[in-house]
């Protein structure tokens, strides 16, 4: 982070890669080095086999007339070749073990089983006019996420990329891209086929002019609460953890013009912000096959299809405001193997920090901490970033599933400091 003065002095251990997996790999490496060394020791000290030490006449050799030195040399070089092969084999094995431990495989474009369209997409394409002076590149290289190579995403990807170019995309499973994104196979490769609208009514319905479209999108409401139209949120606070949009905008004293709502469902936050002339991009996933992105678009708002683990596709320091109702929550993450590890949250927090400008606001809206321990961990993490706590409310609500238990909610408006 260069000159950025994060308060991470006492927390360096958290950033250490000292996991069980890496120590297992190190042990294996050590074992492999020891065996190859023992092998070499054996090769150089062991007595040559009888066939080599017997009379020169039994082994016709071009250098036989010069003396036994050449024979000894060839014995040694044979041993060396054997050692080299042994080392190469253990390196391959080690690589394999490392990949298995990391939990992913690599997508080899040379693999014959890869659909031709995927191979074509991944191929390097030279720029028609040669090297581009500004970017310094000579060819375009397309990429897909490494998780695409992991089972079962690999099979889904092969199905996704098996189609007839320039025709309609296969109709068999319109939710295939969603399934792949949920398995962290993002970015997905581009396809050369004509897409089919998932909900024809949503795309052909006449659009109302803006801003009427915000609350009358003219398409079916996909759900309730944050997954459908909600006219209460941020207008009529339901508890002390609910801040109103107007009070937060007042804190921002006019400097809030563009924002990013992470995991924003049906786009209610962006709609309320649009009414106040603030442009908000809403990241939303198609949950349970509901056409969330089409719904947000029908409202005249900007939907962004983004898996919970993808790096935000924005440049540094671009947003005046980042809002999230549940992105820090384990909600969308366990399916992607992110669970509630501190590091998973750190990856997210650092990316939020990156896209927020100095002086910009981070609005944590009713973040559900499963317990007090989680609340302490999140609080400690946030404090290490040195944000100014403009609002900070911790509340408890009865657990809907277990009335004997209460759940801890954290709501906060935090201001990113200017860092030198
Ligand atoms: C070949 O190596 C052996 C020891 O392995 C040695 O006794 C012998 O003198 C060597 N022969 C020549 C010709 O150098
Ligand atoms: C939004 O912008 C329009 C046009 O500039 C203006 O008439 C309106 O008063 C603004 N609304 C708010 C809430 O600032």
TrEMBL record:
Keywords: Coiled coil, Membrane, Transmembrane, Transmembrane helix
Compositionally biased spans, kind Low complexity: 197-206
Glycosyltransferase as UniProt keyword: no
Gene3D superfamilies registered for this protein in UniProt: Vaccinia Virus protein VP39
Coiled coil feature spans: 80-107
Residues spanning the membrane: 24-44
Renumbered residue ranges of the record's region Disordered: 196-216
UniProt name for this protein: S-adenosyl-L-methionine-dependent methyltransferase superfamily protein
């Amino acid at each position: 982070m260069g000159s950025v003065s994060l308060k991470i002095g006492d927390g360096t251990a958290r950033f250490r890669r000292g996991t069980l997996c890496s120590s297992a790999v190190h042990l294996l490496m050590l074992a492999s080095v020891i065996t190859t060394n023992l092998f070499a020791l054996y090769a150089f000290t062991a007595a040559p086999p009888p066939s080599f030490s017997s009379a020169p006449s039994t082994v016709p050799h071009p250098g036989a007339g010069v003396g036994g030195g050449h024979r000894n040399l060839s014995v040694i070089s044979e041993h060396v070749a054997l050692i080299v092969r042994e080392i190469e084999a253990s390196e391959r094995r080690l690589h394999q073990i490392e990949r298995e431990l990391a939990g992913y495989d690599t997508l080899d474009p040379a693999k014959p089983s890869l659909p031709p369209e995927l191979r074509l997409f991944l191929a390097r394409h030279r720029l028609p006019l040669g090297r581009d002076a500004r970017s310094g590149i000579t060819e375009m290289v397309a990429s897909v996420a490494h998780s695409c190579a992991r089972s079962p995403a690999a099979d889904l990807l092969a199905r996704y990329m098996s189609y007839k170019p320039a025709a309609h995309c296969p109709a068999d499973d319109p939710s295939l891209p969603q399934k792949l994104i949920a398995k962290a196979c993002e970015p997905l490769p581009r396809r050369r086929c004509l897409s089919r609208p998932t909900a024809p009514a949503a795309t052909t319905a006449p659009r109302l002019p803006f801003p009427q479209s915000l609350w009358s999108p003219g398409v079916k409401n996909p759900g309730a609460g944050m997954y459908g139209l909600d006219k209460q949120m941020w207008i009529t606070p339901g508890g002390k953890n609910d801040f109103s949009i107007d009070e937060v905008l007042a804190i921002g004293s006019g400097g809030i013009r563009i924002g990013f709502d992470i995991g924003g469902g049906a786009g209610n936050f962006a709609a309320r912000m649009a009414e106040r002339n603030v442009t908000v991009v809403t990241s939303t996933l198609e949950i349970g096959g509901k056409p969330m992105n089409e719904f947000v678009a029908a409202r005249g708002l900007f939907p962004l299809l983004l898996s919970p683990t993808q790096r935000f596709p924005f440049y540094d320091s671009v947003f005046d405001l980042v809002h999230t109702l549940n992105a820090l929550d384990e909600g969308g993450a366990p399916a992607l193997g992110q669970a509630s590890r501190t590091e998973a949250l750190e990856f997210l927090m650092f990316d939020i920090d990156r896209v927020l400008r100095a002086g910009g606001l981070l609005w944590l809206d009713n973040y559900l901490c499963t317990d007090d321990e989680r609340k302490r961990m999140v609080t400690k993490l946030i404090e290490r970033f040195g944000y100014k706590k403009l609002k900070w409310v911790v509340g408890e609500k009865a657990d809907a599933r277990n009335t004997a238990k209460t759940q801890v909610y954290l709501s906060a408006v935090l201001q990113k400091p200017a860092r030198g």
